[in-house]
Each structure stands twice: as structure tokens, then as C-alpha cells.
Structure prediction request, 207 residues.
Amino acid sequence: MKQLKSQAAMVMLVMVAIAGCNTPPSPNPEASSPSAESAPDASGDVDLPGDEAILQTVYDQAESLDLCDGFYQPEVAQADSRVYRLGDRALVELVCANAAYQSVYAYVAYQPDGSWQPLSLDGFYPDETGQFVRTSEGTVAGLATFDPEQGLLTVFSKARGIGDCGSLADYRWTGDKLALETFRYQECSDSPEENFVEPADYPQVYP
Prediction:
């Protein structure tokens, strides 16, 4: 299993300098406890804090909870992270670090009562026999885009800079998690110019 996780990390994070298993940490009670700022008012409505307040809550715990698996760059996070407001809750996109051709992300679900929870993202990667095995990681490297109207997160993870191989995954926001909808994977070729494949045309592994 250790060999599988090492191989998966190498595929997703080549030249990003990340390896190993990224198990999403569980926030301590203090980090995820409801805040008075987001408590329901007399009418029963919930007003989420402002974006900066939500982000600061995550920044304050990012290192102690190791949300970025040891690769947290505060200056990058504070410049590039953002909040997506989705009804009475929010999805926080924490940009952990930037590399030459892609970034490293962690995601947090912020609930109406002020609690929040780090999320994990599922994927499929070949083991030493070439069989695809499902994994779950607390961080993901790639180029991420989120469509709030559809609640759809798309992550193109390059295996190398020219972007001819790697994975393309779609995740659906359910209100408390990011559920994997589709996963495509393309092995790297020795002749990338001759065998270039657009990410949308990568072989589909899931479902």
C-alpha cells in the first residue's frame, strides 16, 4: 500500500515536490466549534461571517492542523485562497502552495453553525500491476476551477509541465463534501508531441 501511495503522489505531484499519503486531518474541537458570529438570529436565519473572517479562521489553523500536509505557504494562501458561498454554507478553497505549472489545494466545508471540516478528494491511480485503485487525499495538485452555479469542481492534475498526461477529475458539491463524479487518467508517453491527448479525451476510469 505504501508503494501505491508513493506512485500516486509521483503521478500527481511530479515537480511539485510532494510525496506520500495526504490523509485529511480532523480539526480539533476548538477549530471547528460554532462561533457566536454565525449563530442563528431570532428569525432562525443564519448569516455566515464575511469571506475574510472565514478565511482567517482557516489560516489560523492551517499549520497546526496540517491542512496542507506540510506544504503550507502563508503568503500564497492569503493571496490566492477564496470562499465560494453556496446557500447557507460555504466552500473554502485553500491554495497551499504554487509550483512551476500548477498549485496545491485543500478544501474546507464551512457550515451554517460556524463549524468547519477539511474535505478529502477521491481519485484512481494504477498500482504496480497496472490496476486502478481508489484513493482519498486531503490535498490535490493541479489546475482547479469551481463553478458555483453547478457546484462543480474540476481539477486537471498534470503529471509533467507540458500537460500531455495526468488526470482530470470532476467533483460535485453536496453541501458537506465534494463527491467524485468522473475521473480520467492518461499515462505519459515517450513521444508527447506525437501522442498528445486533450484532458477531456483522457481514458475514463470512473464511473
Notes: The chain has one domain: 2-22+44-206.
